[in-house]
Design brief:
heterodimer; A: 226 residues; Rossmann fold; 8 helices; B: 266 residues; mainly alpha; disordered C terminus
Chain lengths: 226, 266
């Protein structure tokens, strides 16, 4: 039986202030799939990613989430289902636990101390619940950011160069952690990266963008070694 | 001493203005001596101030003899000009003038209407226009300060705001900390002014009343009334415009519009 794509990009494009950022992207992301978006600086990678949870508005086309046009969905519900990690952690002032509780609180849900501990355990930060975010390292902050996104129980994870601000050791461990979490939760993932080796390590499929348009799409082996 | 040589009010006023201008020229000489290259700017500012205030005085001669509805129109015009001035702090945001006008109109306007209705401000042009201008100008400054701070806070925290939106927060919730900071910063100068009232400075209105021979206690009481009116009008104007501007920096789908410049660079 054919699976329904989790995300289906239909002729998706965006123009802002007279500049073409993304044009005519048609693509489906299947359940459990990891798609890497790569390309040169300014190719439109982040611009495309930001269209997937409607953080920016498409000028053309749309995205279907589980077969439903996302423009007909409540935007806050959409963003909970399509979680996103930005390039930096951007934690809110306060404790790690307060950061983790932020997302569920937006729906009026309070997550218990046990649930906070479980989320922290999943990202390898046991015992950090009461720590103030001003006292944690860059790698730990990105892990908190991941746990904070997971607290919303998303179906899909969007990652915008999540390891670009980390050193080599942290980069590999955060990368492993992300893959582990995605596979463990059966989530789909779209990751923007300029690092081709990272794309090859993490993705099932790679999309190469050039000037906002699809240049190539296929398996990492086929696309990156072509 | 001057009154011995200038017996009429007009000639005395002109003589006083000339002496004030001569004293001001000292600053011009100081600028020349210190090579600040501000002589032209200082000279133009002095001349401009003299011409403007004389023009206002001349216009007031006619206006103060006019009907009361003229005062209402003048106050509305003042509000519009104040709104345009305050909106310059957030230029680039569509609808900024509308936001500041509603802020000043509702904030300062409400105070003026209530105080006139209660008889605190006399239903006379001589009272409505000067007191109204002070209240409106307070509203304008508070709006400008609040919106300027709000814009700065939003621009330097786009990451946190978008992180909030990505977690499913509504735009109002995502910018709430920055609305609070901007509102707080707009209140501080007014609170400081209330604290320093009478100790560090005696404001113009009370000074004017004293110079005109009023009882000092009456002058002090009226000064407090005006300061309180300015305080309330400033706070309301800033609060209203901050809550209105939020709608203009987000799209209907809770997308932060102020960030589009950064987006284009990616």
């Amino acid at each position: 039986m054919d699976q329904i794509p989790v995300l289906e990009l239909q002729a998706l494009g965006r123009e802002a202030q007279g500049k073409l950022l993304v044009a005519d992207i048609n693509l489906a992301v299947m359940p459990g799939e990891v798609l890497a978006i790569t390309g040169a600086s300014g190719a439109g990678k982040t611009s495309l990613l930001r269209l997937l949870n409607r953080l920016d508005e498409p000028t053309w086309g749309t995205v279907l989430l589980d077969g439903e046009d996302y423009r007909h969905m409540e935007v806050s519900a959409l963003r909970r289902k399509v979680g996103m990690l930005l390039q930096q952690a951007y934690l809110f002032p306060g404790t790690v636990a307060e950061n983790l509780r932020f997302g569920p609180l937006q729906q009026g849900k309070h997550i218990s101390d046990d649930e906070v501990d479980k989320l922290l355990e999943r990202v390898g930060l046991q015992g950090f619940a009461g720590t103030n975010v001003s006292r944690i390292s860059g790698g730990e902050a990105q892990r908190v950011s991941l746990a904070r996104t997971l607290a919303n129980d998303p179906r899909i994870l969007l990652l915008d160069e999540p390891t670009s601000s980390l050193d080599e050791a942290n980069r590999l461990s955060v990368e492993d952690l992300i893959l582990d979490v995605i596979h463990h939760n059966g989530m789909s993932c779209v990751i923007v990266t300029h690092d081709l080796a990272q794309a090859a390590r993490m993705a099932d499929r790679v999309l190469v963008l050039e000037a906002g348009r699809m240049l190539k799409v296929g398996s990492p082996r086929k696309v990156l070694h072509a | 001493m001057l009154s011995q040589f200038f017996p009429t009010d007009l000639s005395l006023g002109i003589a006083q203005a000339v002496i004030a201008a001569i004293i001001s020229l000292l600053v011009l000489l100081l600028s020349y001596w210190q090579r600040l290259s501000m002589e032209k700017e200082i000279f133009i500012a002095l001349i401009r101030a003299l011409v403007q205030i004389l023009a206002v005085g001349a216009v007031l001669v006619f206006i103060l003899q006019g009907p009361l509805w003229l005062g209402v129109i003048i106050l509305l015009l003042m509000m519009w000009m104040a709104a345009r001035e305050a909106a310059r702090r957030v230029s680039g945001i569509p609808g900024a003038v509308r936001v500041t006008f509603y802020g000043i109109f509702l904030g300062s306007g409400a105070v003026l209407v209530v105080m006139t209705f209660l008889g605190v401000i006399k239903w006379q042009l001589e009272s409505m226009i000067p007191v109204g201008s002070m209240v409106i100008s307070g509203g304008m400054n508070a709006c400008a300060l609040a919106l300027d701070r709000f814009r700065g806070e939003v621009e330097s925290h786009t990451g946190q705001i978008e992180a909030g939106l990505c977690l499913g927060a509504e735009s109002e919730k995502a910018v709430m900390p920055y609305v609070q900071k901007a509102f707080r910063s707009s209140l501080i100068p007014r609170i400081n002014a209330l604290r320093a009232l009478g100790i560090v400075w005696i404001p113009g209105l009370m000074s004017g009343m004293l110079l005109a021979g009023s009882d000092p206690v009456i002058a002090a009481l009226y000064q407090f009334v005006v300061m309180a009116m300015i305080f309330v009008a400033s706070s309301l104007s800033a609060f209203i415009s901050l809550h209105l501007i939020r709608r203009y920096i987000f799209s209907e789908a809770d997308q932060l519009l102020l960030q589009s410049k950064h987006q284009l660079q990616k």
